């Protein structure tokens, strides 16, 4: 692969989307085939392959593409991308993430290691594992190397701390790390497969042939990082770990030892701003610090904070601290612990206490407000303590006033907290922190999502919430969600069960709306465990309902139905009306999309009646929306319009923008079926505009797709194809399989209208494949119906009949006469069979 030198100054150009010929040539060369060998194995003319690769001819038949994909061993996603490129679909490049931390200050030396890393990259080693003892500077080295390599990876740089060695913090599971990586690449959380292997496959397809740099910090072991490795040589991965990761494919190892003495002296001198100290004393300082960068920076900060000290004073105190810890630490961490103990001993007692308590934080970092709550002080005192700790390199300040600790510093602080603070004091500090997160999460949700207030707990917190704007509230929620989940986990471990359920209930809808389904799953399972331990039936009912919504978003409809049923049973028995409303709605939606023969109407009628009796506007909105979609799928369009209108009014009244978009699109679909094309097109355009304004990508996709449908129904299939191609491009880019299916299905229908049976067949087969992978029988019935239409256009009545009969069989298995696509219904297919 192409790589610039680590000290290069130039910037690489941004690559555009790959053409069909470029993709074909790249994957042929990957398979080590010549054009003649590929032609022989696929049965195609070598001249045809040559024209495809040079761009002279880019209209291959679907059957030819499938042969080539099979011979080259392409994945399903690669086959879809090749087909899209052959049709000329533009695959837009997502926003390029630039997540590397700032360049480390006072970075010195490591010239040999950087040169070795550069040589491995130039050799094509796409995974470089940086290993070494704690405190040796692995993260700083990886960030420095990453920043020097970044110009060679213009599609973006992603940095993720896997927390493999953090005290009191759980290492990121592979599925959590994958979810963070995929979100950084623009994939919505609800489109992430639940299965780790399937999600890893989607990740590899998404990054194929893109030039991306990944830095995975603090890797616990090869198993944690293996699913995060791309399968393409165009990407580069840097990992840091205290362990050897030799088992990683295509890997090379750079081992960092302690700094050579001259470099250690240079680092200390720069960090301490020392001028002309005695060489012998300086040498003794760096040796007492073990020549570890972390210890050297801490010792330098200590000297800098004591203007009256000479270097000899620092040497003496380091010797004393080293002797004090000699009997309880291994040689590797002696220098760091001696430096930490020296700085700790010099603190006044309030700052020592702040340091000890910071060692107890359950999440990755902390801000001023949370620190003040943890310390039990006001903001002024908390800020003073934090700044003192930062000045002494006991804390690192990140962006936007956030503070974090190195793993060794966290362990040191926690050890002093355990030894000095009573169990009661430690519990009180964490309880104050939990109160803070609950109060601030409640205030943030009030501003960001006011319509969810009736669904959130309102415990009597004693913490005053901040005076925020809506934008500040949104920013706090997105930033603090990892800390909230970690806090709930800590509360569970400390048997502070009330906080687990409260935190889960407070941020549930935010996690769902941000598609952070993995974190939501962890949080609500903890809440359910705590509710069961307490024997709190109301909390258990809420947790079951929340888990049901998560399972439904993950397309686990049976799991969703099980949790909704348990929520309904508990809520009905205990008179929890709002929980009962949501459970009925959840069961109705699960029935519709999961293909169960159970009638959803009972649940919808009951939910709407309960919501109206309780004056529950959100419940009424969700009920009307679900009823409207049910009537739409049954072909009862006027009834659907009535319910969509009520849902639209309620959504606007409570300020639920996502539901407003949904109602606009649903009403537009019903208008289109009633022949009111102008009204439908207007509704879809308003939905797209509102989605873009509010940052709702799924609404934007749905609006564009339905705009294509309206154009096709009005007799303009060519314009419809433009809309569907736009949907497909975005869906492929984001890995959204649901919308890939809808785009292919729409394009197949449009090609049938144009009389192009071969193209229609190709797209409906892609839709069929995607429906089978999603295991959704209603969507499979729609694809089979489309295949029947394609064969009919091709003049193959037997093939058409076979697929239409398959579609009817699927509808019979589902126990329904309609799907949510009005073109796929029992009556419509029967008419086609009769006419055929």
TrEMBL record:
Source organism, top-level taxon: Bacteria
Sequence ranges assigned to domain HTH cro/C1-type in this UniProt record: 24-79
Q: SUPFAM superfamilies, per this entry?
A: lambda repressor-like DNA-binding domains, P-loop containing nucleoside triphosphate hydrolases, TPR-like
In this chain the TPR repeats are located at: 541-574
GO terms for MF: ADP binding; DNA binding
What name is this protein filed under?
A: Helix-turn-helix domain-containing protein
Pfam families, from UniProt? HTH_31, TPR_7
Name the InterPro entries on file.
Cro/C1-type_HTH, Lambda_DNA-bd_dom_sf, P-loop_NTPase, TPR-like_helical_dom_sf, TPR_rpt
Species this protein is from: Kribbella pittospori
Taxonomically, what lineage is the organism? Bacteria, Bacillati, Actinomycetota, Actinomycetes, Propionibacteriales
